[in-house]
Every structure is written in structure tokens, then in C-alpha cells.
């Protein structure tokens, strides 16, 4: 288990204070260095657990990396939309999105900061993807694409348990020969 990579590709959110976004080429170079370093040390199976949709270019690039390392097996796992975790989300509330309740776990909440109570309508994602960062912030406000901001802790633990079980299953049995 390696430390979390705390930065990714998030240029649309750079109008939000504190947001740091990597360029796509920087992110891919970082992945190349990390996987290359692990490979050089003898690692042949790596599970990348991704938690952010903006990092999708890494998933596409991975096939290119694997073509140069035919004895390696690398899985890219988007824990948040993997089949079992996503089914748990949908069973609780189908309106779940970026910065909504599905990303608001008890252990990631800011203490003494009350969450808004309204259920935001889903934003037009096709329109949003056309906008520069300042307009994205104006349209979204708090960053929530749609849905409630918070749900009961037991709902969040259910999703987390599904996500952990699904990830563990990949580690134990998800390797191609």
C-alpha cells in the first residue's frame, strides 16, 4: 500500500481557492515514473485505486504502458463507479454526483461546518464541460453537480464497505494470467 497521490487533473475547478491541477502530461509522466519505479523493483502486479473522474486519461494511457511491459498486470480501479459500489450508491439515492453526498463521508467532513440541506438539481454536464473555470464556479457555486450534500452516516458506511470489499476482491482474484 502506497501513499495517496493527492493531486490529479482538475483544471475545471481551478477557480476554487486551493485547487491545484496537474497538466495531463505531468500526470501521465508521474504515473509512468511511479509504475516504472515499481516495475524496476520487481513489482509485476499493481492495483491503482482512483478516486477522481478527472484522472481518466491515466486509465487510457495504462494500455500504452502495459504494451511495453508485457509481464506486468496493472488494474485501474475507479472505486466510486465500480459495479458494486455504484449499485450501493444507486440503491441509496440515484441522484449522486461530484461533491454531493456520495463524496461526503463522516471522516472527510469539516467539523462545525453545516452542510446545505437542499437537494440540488443535476447540472447540465455537457454545458458545464464547455466552460472555463471561473464560469464553472459561477454555475456550480459549491461544486455539487446535483443531489443532496449529506446523507446519514449509515448510508455512507454501506457504500464504503461495498467499495472496500470490491477493491479487496480485485486484489485477491482480479488478476489476468
Strand-helix topology:
Elements: H1 24-40, E1 45-50, H2 56-67, E2 73-78, H3 83-92, H4 125-128, H5 133-140, H6 153-173
Parallel strand pairs: 1-2
Protein name: Creatinine amidohydrolase
Keywords: Hydrolase, Metal-binding, Zinc
Cofactor: Zn(2+)
Q: What gross morphology would you assign?
A: globular
Average the pLDDT over all residues and give the rounded result.
96
* Poorly predicted tracts of residues: none
Structural class: mainly alpha
Percent of residues in helices comes to 40-55%
Q: How many domain units?
A: 2
- Strand-and-helix sequence, N→C? HEHEHHHH
Main beta sheet: strand number and arrangement? Answer: 2 strands, parallel
Record field, number of beta strands: 2
Computed Rg: 18 Å
**In angstroms, what separates the terminal alpha carbons?**
22 Å
Which range does the strand content fall in?
A: 5-15%
Query: What is the spatial order of strands in the main beta sheet?
Result: 1-2
Number of helices: 6
Family: Belongs to the creatininase superfamily.
Keywords: Hydrolase, Metal-binding, Zinc
Protein name: Creatinine amidohydrolase
InterPro entries: Creatininase-like_sf (IPR024087), Creatininase/forma_Hydrolase (IPR003785)
Amino acid at each position: 500500500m502506497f501513499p495517496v497521490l493527492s493531486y490529479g487533473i482538475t483544471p475545471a475547478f481551478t477557480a476554487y481557492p486551493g485547487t491545484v491541477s496537474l497538466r495531463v502530461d505531468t500526470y501521465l509522466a508521474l504515473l509512468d515514473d511511479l509504475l516504472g519505479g515499481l516495475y524496476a523493483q520487481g513489482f509485476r502486479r499493481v492495483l491503482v485505486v482512483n478516486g477522481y473522474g478527472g484522472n481518466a486519461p491515466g486509465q487510457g494511457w495504462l494500455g500504452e504502458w502495459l504494451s511495453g511491459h508485457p509481464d506486468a498486470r496493472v488494474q485501474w480501479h475507479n472505486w466510486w463507479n465500480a459495479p458494486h459500489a455504484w449499485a450501493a450508491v444507486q440503491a441509496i439515492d440515484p441522484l449522486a454526483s461530484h461533491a454531493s453526498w456520495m463524496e461526503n463521508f463522516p471522516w472527510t467532513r469539516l467539523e462545525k461546518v453545516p452542510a446545505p440541506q437542499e437537494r440540488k438539481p443535476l447540472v447540465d454536464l455537457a454545458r458545464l464541460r464547455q466552460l472555463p473555470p471561473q464560469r464553472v464556479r459561477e454555475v456550480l457555486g459549491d461544486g455539487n453537480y446535483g443531489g443532496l450534500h449529506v446523507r446519514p452516516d449509515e448510508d455512507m458506511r454501506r457504500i464504503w464497505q461495498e467499495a472496500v470489499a470490491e477493491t479487496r476482491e480485485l486484489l485477491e482474484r482480479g488478476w489476468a494470467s
